[in-house]
Amino acid sequence: MRALSKHARKSAKRDEHRTRYYAYMGSDAWRAVRAGWLTEYRMRFVGEPACAVCEKEWQLSRDDLHHHTYDRLGAEAFEDLAPLCRSCHSRVHDTIRGSRHWSRMRDVAASIKVIQRLRLLLRNDVDHRHQRTRAS
Ligand SMILES: [Zn+2]
Ligand SMILES: [Zn+2]
Q1: Which of 5, 64, 80, 83 has the most C-beta neighbours closer than 10 Å?
Q2: Model confidence over 94-123: pLDDT tens digits?
Q3: Is 85 exposed, middle or buried (0-12, 13-18, 19+ CB in 10 A)?
Q4: Ligand 2 centroid to residue 129 C-alpha, Å
Q5: Would 1 be classed as within a structural domain?
Q6: Is the confidence at residue 126, as pLDDT, over 80?
Q7: Which domain holds residue 125?
Q8: How far is the CA of 133 from the centre of ligand 1 (A)?
Q9: On the CB side of 89, how many CA atoms lie within 13 Å of its CA?
Q10: Closest ligand relative to 92 C-alpha
């Protein structure tokens, strides 16, 4: 039998990972982790969570919890997860996927930096718009 190339091994691993991830996303275990995360959030902070990018109100029933890392899938630490609204969540993943720079970086580092970057971009954008309206 011919050994799998490095690339094939890597992509097989990615497929296996993806299958596991999607099965988990539909599970009661994940629902319990989400609820537990919100409880933890409320113990640590005053007020309700907001999307880590656009800062819109985050709701357990509607919005996503993004994994900074999949290392502890099923036994996530509070810090492994970030509240994101649906559209910011897709932007985070599109940004990581769309860039060699980000996708080469370790998942936690890339994920945290991309979220910061998108938040800054969004904030600058809002500031500019304010300035334009004030100027006109
Ligand atoms: Zn958002
Ligand atoms: Zn995610």
Answers
A1: 83
A2: 999 999 988 888 889 999 999 999 999 999
A3: buried
A4: 29
A5: no
A6: no
A7: 6-135
A8: 23
A9: 16
A10: 2
Alpha-carbon torsion (56, 61, 63, 64), positive or negative: positive
Q: Checking DSSP bridges between strand 64-67 and strand 81-84, what pairing results, if any?
A: antiparallel
Rg (CA), the chain: 18
Task: Write the CB contacts of 29 (distance below 8 Å, at least 6 apart in sequence).
Answer: 74
Dihedral of alpha carbons 73, 75, 81, 83, sign: positive
Instruction: Count other Cβ atoms within 10 Å, centred on residue 89.
Output: 20
Are 37 and 84 in contact by the 8 Å Cβ rule? The answer is no
Domain count, the chain: 1
pLDDT digits 0-9 by tens, 32-51: 999 999 999 999 999 999 99
> Is 26 within a domain?
yes
Reading the block at residue 100, the tokens are: 């060699």
Q: How far is the CA of 88 from the centre of ligand 2 (A)?
A: 10
